[in-house]
Amino acid sequence: MDACPELAAAHRLVRDFGEMLTQQTGILPPAWINEALAVNLPGLTGFARSLTGDLDAVTAGLTLRWNSGGTEGVVNRIKKIKRHLFG
User: Fold this and answer.
1) pTM for the full predicted model
2) Which of 3, 33, 53, 81 stands 20 to 30 A from 9 (CA)?
3) Range of the domain at 24
């Protein structure tokens, strides 16, 4: 990775974002977003810009311990049944 600084930066940013997800550190996204925008890599820059669209929701998602996974599972099951019945 020493030969390609862009790859090293992308690796570091993706790793840092993964740590934010697993450790649920909701106070870090603004700093991560600023760093991703400064690196100016097309995929990461677009992702960082999309996170700024609803930063409150991103922060809540990385801070709160609960989720709506169970509800989403039930909704998906109902949609599957409806698709099966209506062909």
Assistant:
1) 0.68
2) 53
3) 5-85
